[in-house]
Amino acid sequence: MLKTLGAQIKEFRKDSVLTPFFMIGEVVMETVIPLLMASIIDDGVEAGNMKHIYFIGVLMVAAALIGLFFGIMGGKYGARASAGFAKNLRKAMYENIQTFSFSNIDKFSTSGLVTRLTTDVTNMQNAYQMILRMCMRAPTSLICAMIMSFVISPRLASVYLVAVIFLGGVLGLIVSQATKHFTQAFPKYDALNESVQENVSAIRVVKAYVREEHEIKKFRTASNNIYKIFCKAESIVMWNNPVMNFTVYTCILLISWLGAHMVVQNALSTGHLMSMLTYCMNILMSLMMLSMIFVMITMSMASARRICEVLEEKPDLSNPQEPVMAVADGSIVFDHVSFAYKKEAETPVLKNVNLEIKSGETIGIIGGTGSAKSSLVNLISRLYDVTEGKLLVGGVDVRDYDMEMLRNEVAVVLQNNVLFSGTILDNLRWGDRDASEEECRHACQLACADEFIQKMPEGYGTYIEQGGTNVSGGQKQRLCIARALLKKPKVLILDDSTSAVDTATDAKIRSAFAEAIPGTTKLIIAQRISSVEHADRIIVMNDGQIDGFASHEELLATNEIYREVYDAQMSGSGDFDEKGGN
Fold first, then answer.
1. C-beta of residue 131 within 8 angstroms of C-beta of residue 300
2. Is this structure's pTM higher than 0.85?
């Protein structure tokens, strides 16, 4: 874990080294000042030597100014190092997330990743700054003050030694008890963020169903869980201050009592007694800083582990050593393919699938909910890897291709259409960043999107809100289809992506595909038979297996499931999930 986190310091190593250097310099100056003060009292005030007082006074001012300079520089470099460390952590996590396959992403919730990128990184930033500054300053100050105390008076310094041992034991007990509560707290932030994210993204549904009270209650529950855990942790940590104050005042009383007797007995000078009291405060304040450091590090350890989970996660999918860099055509072959989302799953999602699709064919895919239609097409662009068998695109196993190149040749319009904040042109150019406005317009004409875009006040410059909230479901689907067409792919997959458009528009889109991209293999997943009946062939999926693969007419004659669904839909009394889908 330390190696993983340490690698993110990178260009801020110099700042990370200079910070403790300046903090040590500040401590040295603070250690010298009590000695100079003792000299003023013993050799200046009591001896009536004004020249000595002025000289030592100038040295004290110089030491204070040098210490102030060191403190400022330590703060400056510490802030730069910790902020840079946090920046690199966020960047490294975000970049690693971009390499994840779907199976990697399935291991982390969206809210969990957001918490890691925000709350957990902030905790690490604070902890790192504390380590660079206080973790170096406090032990150095403690050691220097203890050494100087023993030099002045071993008898009085033994009081500090007992106090340090006592406080060390108490602080260790406090930290050990508080750690388990802090560890439990941060996963609760995931639940809180999830509640907020879900509510905000689905606010229209919440209001439509008047579920505000339910959402408030859910948020309050998640918030109270964090509150309760932190209350338990803080109720333990709060013993730190009372124990610290008790020790500080006890030490001051003992030093004053014993020191006064030693001054009377001429075993200790007044100046040295004042120095001992100053060192007493230095020692105990150092211990207090150390206790704060322990608490901060305790809190950050849970965050560090969660961050490392993301940084150390290796993509399940990777390029071969010598990847194939070109897809010859859009032919697709499933050769005894089985697939499971988890390797340990007892029953695969797809079972022994055998298919051969020619380049340029239009293939319909139909089946009940949960019949693995989406799982089948996700394998083509290698969003997941097959568990058994082989999947060939253009005559080459998809595992032999460069993944970026393969996905550029296989355009997918997923069930959950996503548009990003920006203009319509910005969104369309996700398909081809160099596409001209005329090319974008042509793609939208094919997807039957140009008509409604022209009616918008800004046309193709119309701003799309985050998630496409200012366009309808059907408009969003057509924009996503146009975006996929701009890729000019060898294979085009429409995963139930015309469900929100009317039948007439659906027919226009299919007709445009046939004329404009005849050489592209088109896979159309649908619930409506009318969306696929004109396809060259239709796959009927049932429970992860191919129940039928033929033309519309052949399936009506030979496939019972297809025929029952067709009859139900033509009579207007049902859809695929109601008839024959089991």
1. no
2. no
